[in-house]
Design goal:
The protein is built from 1 helix and 20 strands. By secondary structure, the chain is of the alpha/beta class. Bound molecules: coenzyme A.
Amino acid sequence: MSTNVRAYQGIHPDLADSVYVDESAVLVGDIKLDHDASIWPLVAARGDVNKICIGKRSNVQDGSILHVTRKSLANPDGHPLIIGDDVTIGHKAMLHGCKIGHRVLIGMGAILLDGAVVEDDVIVGAGSLVPPNKVLQSGFLYVGSPCKQARPLTEAERAFLPQSADNYVRLKNEYLVDLQQSS
Ligand SMILES: CC(C)(COP(=O)(O)OP(=O)(O)OC[C@H]1O[C@@H](n2cnc3c(N)ncnc32)[C@H](O)[C@@H]1OP(=O)(O)O)[C@@H](O)C(=O)NCCC(=O)NCCS
């Protein structure tokens, strides 16, 4: 039977019971979704040649693509994709083998390449390109292609980061209620 959440070589996505995964999203293989995470329409996430972890209360918005790089002699860990807690991934982002800390906003259409590290409390502007292995320092806004540090985050922006995640937790709870009522 085909399903949108499926195993690859015997490893099935591991979903905490409070998560929301839209029925049009595709999750394959070694993917861990922690409590209250949400995956929105048309997301494609492939945990086949390495693992993907998505933290508590984080959301991956519509059309985003998540993939990883396999282990090799030159790179024994490969590049897993690790997303921390309270992270907002905007629509149509492309995340490949990178590491994202807690309370981060990845703008719509941003592209993050292998080995990139986004520290805690960062905003990556819409449409930005984060090159391989680049480290984005905690507390700053980055924009552009390739991205550059633009300025420190304001207090309001810092406060917005967990708020954005919380908005999506409340939204996915409404979607879960709709699903229960229609089943
Ligand atoms: C970067 C961002 C946070 C705005 O930051 P800001 O400092 O308030 O920016 P401003 O609107 O004051 O613009 C400042 C300059 O940055 C430019 N700019 C704004 N957003 C930009 C972006 N994403 N990439 C490149 N340049 C950008 C503006 O054109 C302006 O340039 P100028 O000074 O030459 O006129 C916002 O534009 C953004 O990208 N937010 C992401 C939203 C998102 O994708 N959310 C997820 C889905 S809900």
